[in-house]
Amino acid sequence: MLNHAMRYVIIIIGCLLAAAAYNLFLIPMNFLSGGLAGIAFILYYLFNLPIGIMNFLLNIPILYIAYRYFGRLYFFDTILGTILFSVALDLTAFLNAYPPLSEPMLCAIVGGVISGIGFGLIFRGNCNTGGVDVIAALIKKLYSYNVGTMVFVLDCLIILSSVWLFDYNIAVYTFICMYLGGVLTNKMIDGFNM
Prior knowledge:
The protein has eight helices and no strands. The relative contact order is 0.19. Helix 2 (35-47) packs parallel to helix 7, helix 5 runs parallel beside helix 8 and helix 6 packs across helix 7. By secondary structure, it is mainly alpha-helical.
């Protein structure tokens, strides 16, 4: 088990990596994202609203669900991850003016890998960033569905509902990025456990 100081360092590094990946590789290509961050992306593209602040505001009802159904410890971990990730998104927002790659497929691959490592570190620190993770955990608790499957379904619904606003190619690149991110997240968690 990680000591508390190391746990927080890992969570902070994970939040910064995931947020930097979003700002370096996804946002410059106008990619989408799953979860509530995906809704925050849409609001940014349409109205230029800050992604981090919108991510936090959209998570407020989720924080209530975390407290109501999962208890105080899970609630504190959720609020910690939500605040750190939201702050990291806005702190690294300047990076979207300096995209290192211009090829969309490369951005999807590299963005997915780096964000997956970041989220893997966050989950390894026994934390989460709120959003659909909490909703999926609630659905699992109430109906015994697999959490990973529910997260993927909810993410897909958010992306598919926004396809009419954006290009189909962007949706495909986003799915590639999400898939790679999920694979790397699992690899990070399993790798540490091994």
